[in-house]
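Thread: Newbie trying to understand structure tokens

Hi all, I'm a second-year student working on a class project, and my supervisor (Dr. K.) asked me to get a predicted structure for one chain before our next meeting. I've only ever worked with sequences, so writing a 3D structure as a token string is new to me. If someone could post the tokens and maybe explain what I'm looking at, I'd be very grateful. Here's the chain:
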Amino acid sequence: MNSKQAKTIAITNQKGGCGKTTTAINLAVALANNGQRVLCIDFDGQANLTMGFGCDYPDELDDNIAKLLLTQINGLSPTPYIVQAHGVDLCFVLFK
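---
Reply by user tm_fold:
Sure, no problem. This is what the structure looks like when written as tokens:
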């Protein structure tokens, strides 16, 4: 495998409250601090990853992953929006 290829790390567990989001945040920041480019995509309906990166009221955002999926299903094109926090890119989706 070429070292420039992107690698995907998925942190999963069926149980809630076991530290998946905390692990994702800490791993992402550690990799970014080590010079790696990191993209986190918050696929949780509660948006805890987004909140962990500093968005105090994620449930007040107009755009979320559910709208992204519906947009894709309906054949529309969402506009990706990426912000950086703690050296980590965090993906949001805007619909214009």
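A couple of things are worth pointing out once you decode it. The radius of gyration is 14 Å. Residues 20-94 form one domain. Feel free to ask follow-ups in this thread.
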